[in-house]
UniProtKB/TrEMBL annotation:
This is ATP-dependent DNA helicase RecG. GO terms for biological process: DNA recombination; DNA repair. Its EC number is 5.6.2.4. It comes from Roseiflexus castenholzii (strain DSM 13941 / HLO8). The lineage of its organism: Bacteria, Bacillati, Chloroflexota, Chloroflexia, Chloroflexales. Keywords: ATP-binding, DNA damage, DNA recombination, DNA repair, DNA-binding, Helicase, Hydrolase, Isomerase, Nucleotide-binding.
């Protein structure tokens, strides 16, 4: 059945929507947006009446009432299912010919296998003349299903075969292209088995030997007297110049595809042969790229001077020159940046078009808070707090990112913000990525807020004087559960902080949930549990999310959805260069804590090689003898990888058996359950162990002030930002602390520079920028971040292009915030499709 995959995709989504009770949330942005994007890619699927009917039923979905939605989704699903029942054995798609032409594609008009249907960007790949079933399947594995997909399946590199010479001019060592006639060709057996084809070619200036190994079929192609084009490196063998296994194609009047140009190398998979895939792509690009409609409004194209879309697509596949390739990349990279910027700016506009709670600043409460702090705020903390208070005072929901290196004091800032919300009669919630971090925050926030009295006069529910006995009773019980003894209570004016974790008993949990729903509890700390159905807030005024990069956009949205429109403060210690911030967190305003509290010790950082491990172990032994503790970090090693790196398990075995048999060595790794990990972490924090061997799981900050050494194995495998995060695990107490990086010297120059940067630089932001510069954005994060768009062409380091896209997005949205104008329809559909893909992948 044509378009089967698209129909299944639609069906799956509708089934999910049905399962969720038709709340229009099965996909971000709502069903209608999804459908707009889906239509774009639907291709042949749109030809079915059943599909048309389903689409008609779902028109205007957002404004339908829930009952109508349920009915219509039900019918639409039935309609789609009927397609599969009527055709239990879907017809095989038409295949024009079973094999690729062995020659490069020739004059189109004369093709014997010209397609019955005209080929368009929406055609399924099966319609491409000459494609085999196997190729269709292989492309499908790459996510390429339609002609349009193939047009957007870009080369990952180019071989430069542009330098064309005569044979006399060929220089050994250079990569060159020659056009020559076959003078002689003979097949010879090789000692190692198989055969070799020796070809002698010549032009007016001389002769050249060309050899191919183990490709016996080539003998029929190199017939004496035919002309060929050869591209490859010139070698020397027995004192004579020769080409070994060059790229080649017969010399015809046709385009050069494989030789004599910038030759594209496309990402391939099993079942796809480079030459035939390239020839197929050339055919499709020539025929269909000109049919692409440009989604950029003419005004944008004029202002930016970017290449038109059809040309950019043609040039990125088969560039006429380096310069054209660069221009094509710029244009397509711009598109990606623009989609991102339009998306995030729109999200921000929609978010901030809602009414929020204007929380009027209570200076008396803030000053009481400052008076009780055991330290002075840093300048950066003061600035961030001012920015946050200003946001919260507006009747628009805040969306702010608080970015600050490990130890820069984000918790105090969060506490000050929470206090303002609470003083105005609202609740605040803080969501952390793990239970142990939630617990740590809980203790930290209680210490900071526990002795600050808040005015209760604005509280509707729990102004204690006019409580009836039953309410009073309930409140007493909650305070008992929260561990608020008489003093903490501050005559009913103490901040009531609850930790909502799995360790609460069922009855206590019920009481706490009740307390949250009634507004008896001011500040709730927990994990993802805070956004589950069972938690209802009385008046959530501020939602704080710690370590944002662990949360997706969706979860952020869900937490937001719990209150009506709470102010949102997102905190991260990941030092992300400014340019990336604009992309990834473009929908957030940013406050940066770029200053550490005074008196922080520098963590002594040394890079050693594997043979020097013993020195490091002696150091750890000395520290343990002084009563300190140490972390040993091992990179995650895939079983398939052939590397000399010990896994955490192996390291733990070696250390506990051979190196430190007399010390207490614990192990924590990614395959353990969260509960088990937390148990080990707590035992380590309580000094039941001297050494903790861990995989990257300890990255997220737990406080163990007594740990003074962190040794990192396979240090070259981590990003500098991540190494810096690891390093932040020590130096949290009063003792001098150390970071030891282990990796070998024979590593390349980049590794050497990165290790030296770690030794000499202690500023996380600078390290992140250096890493981005040295390794590029692909490796910057190590793994893809949830909700991070997947960029095919755009370079995150290209700040100028990013800023151009940002400006253009603002201009476009200023005139047409919803992209409703007809001349923006295509842009909007493209942007939606881009985000649908991103959100599904993320
Ligand atoms: P992070 O930004 O990594 O979350 P924390 O909020 O945990 O940092 O703060 C780290 C430590 O620094 C805490 O012990 C905190 O009490 C302390 N701290 C925060 N701000 C200051 C300051 N202005 N002066 C001194 N110590 C501070
Ligand atoms: Mg923190």
């Amino acid at each position: 059945m044509d378009g089967k995959d698209q129909i299944i995709r639609l069906g799956k989504l509708l089934a999910e929507e049905q399962r969720r009770g038709c709340d229009d949330r099965a996909v971000n942005g709502g069903l209608e947006r999804f459908l707009t994007a889906w239509r774009m890619d639907a291709g042949m699927a749109l030809r079915y009446e059943a599909v048309q009917q389903a689409l008609e039923l779902l028109a205007g979905y957002a404004v339908l009432d829930q009952a109508t939605r349920r009915a219509r989704v039900g019918i639409a699903l039935e309609s789609l299912r009927s397609l599969f029942r009527a055709q239990p054995n879907p017809q095989p798609a038409p295949v024009a010919s079973s094999a690729m032409p062995t020659r490069a594609p020739t004059r189109r008009a004369s093709r014997p296998d010209a397609p019955a249907r005209p080929l368009t960007p929406d055609s399924p790949l099966d319609d491409v003349p000459g494609i085999t079933r196997q190729m269709v399947q292989s492309f499908r594995r790459l996510g390429v299903r339609t002609v349009r997909d193939l047009l957007y399946h870009f080369p990952h590199r180019y071989d430069d075969f542009t330098s064309r010479k005569t044979i006399a001019e060929l220089q050994p060592g250079a990569v060159e292209t020659v056009i020559a006639e076959v003078l002689d060709a003979r097949t010879l057996p090789m000692k190692s088995g198989g055969s070799r084809l020796d070809v002698l070619v010549g032009d007016e200036t001389g002769t050249l030997k060309v050899v191919f190994f183990r490709q016996p079929w080539l003998a029929q192609r190199f017939l004496v007297g035919t002309k060929v084009v050869l591209s490859g490196k010139i070698g020397v063998y027995d004192g004579l110049r020769q080409m070994a296994s060059p790229e080649w194609q017969p010399f015809t009047d046709d385009d050069l595809i494989h030789v004599g140009r910038l030759v594209p190398v496309h990402p391939l998979t099993r079942g796809l042969v480079e030459r035939s895939a390239r020839a197929l792509i050339k055919q499709v690009v020539d025929r269909c790229a000109p049919m692409l409609e440009d989604h950029l409004p003419p005004a944008v194209r004029e202002r930016t001077g970017l290449m038109p879309l059809p040309q950019a697509i043609a040039q990125i596949h088969f560039p006429d020159s380096r310069d054209m390739l660069e221009q094509a990349r710029r244009r397509l990279g711009f598109d990606e940046f623009l989609f991102i910027q339009l998306g995030v700016l729109q999200r921000k506009m929609i978010w901030q078009a809602q009414r929020g709670y204007a929380i009027t600043r209570r200076d008396d409460v803030h000053e009481a808070f400052l008076r009780r702090l055991p330290f002075e705020l840093t300048g950066a903390q003061v600035r961030a707090i001012e920015e946050i208070f200003a946001d919260m005072a507006r009747p628009v929901p805040m969306a702010r990112l608080l970015q600050g290196d490990v130890g820069s004091g984000k918790t105090v800032v969060a506490a000050a913000a929470a206090l303002q919300a609470i003083a105005s009669g609202y609740q605040a919630a803080l969501m952390a990525p793990t239970e142990i971090l939630a617990e740590q925050h809980y203790r930290g926030l209680r210490a900071l807020l526990g002795n600050v009295p808040v005015p209760r006069d604005q509280r509707q529910v729990s102004a204690e004087d006019d409580l009836d006995p039953e309410q009073r009773e309930r409140l007493e019980e909650i305070k008992r559960i929260l561990g608020m003894s008489g003093d903490d209570d501050l005559d009913g004016r103490g901040v009531r902080v609850a930790l909502l974790t799995g360790s609460l008993g069922a009855k206590e949990r019920r009481r706490v949930l009740e307390g949250i729903a009634r507004g008896d509890i001011d500040l709730i700390v927990g994990t993802h549990a805070l956004i589950t159905e069972s938690v209802q807030y009385a008046a959530l005024g501020l939602a704080i999310v710690d370590e944002q990069h662990r949360f997706g956009v969706e979860q952020r949205q869900r937490l937001k959805d719990k209150g009506y429109n709470p102010h949102m403060l997102v905190m991260t210690a990941t030092p992300i260069p400014r340019t990336l911030t604009l992309t990834i967190y473009g929908d957030l305003d940013v406050s940066v804590l770029d200053e550490l509290p005074p008196g922080r010790q520098e963590i002594k950082t040394r890079w050693i090689t594997t043979v020097e491990r013993d020195k490091a172990y002696r150091h750890i032994r000395r520290e343990v003898a002084k009563g300190r503790q140490a972390f040993v970090i091992c990179p995650l090693v895939e079983e398939s990888e052939k590397v000399d790196l010990p896994s955490a398990e192996e390291m733990h075995a070696t250390l506990s058996r051979d190196v430190f048999p007399d010390l207490r060595v614990a192990l924590i790794h990614g395959k353990m359950l969260p509960r088990e990990k937390d148990a080990v972490m707590i035992a380590f924090r309580n000094h039941e162990y001297d050494i903790l061997v861990a995989t990257a799981v300890i990255e997220v900050g737990i406080d163990v002030p007594n740990a003074t050494t962190i040794l990192i194995e396979g240090a070259e495998r981590f990003g500098l930002a991540q190494l810096h995060q690891f390093r932040g695990r020590v130096g949290r107490g009063v003792h001098q602390s150390y970071c030891i990086l282990v990796c070998d010297k024979e590593q390349n120059e980049v590794t050497r520079q990165r290790m030296e940067a770690m030794e000499t630089i202690s500023d996380g932001f600078r390290l992140a920028e250096i890493d981005l510069h040295l390794r590029g954005p692909g490796e910057f994060f190590g793994t893809r971040q949830s909700g991070t768009p997947d960029l095919k062409v755009a370079q995150l380091t290209d700040v100028r292009l990013l800023q151009t896209a940002y400006r253009e997005a603002q201009k476009i949205l200023a005139d047409d915030p919803q992209l409703e104008r007809p001349d923006h329809a295509l842009l909007r559909a493209k942007m939606d499709a881009f985000w649908v893909e991103t959100l599904q992948a993320g």
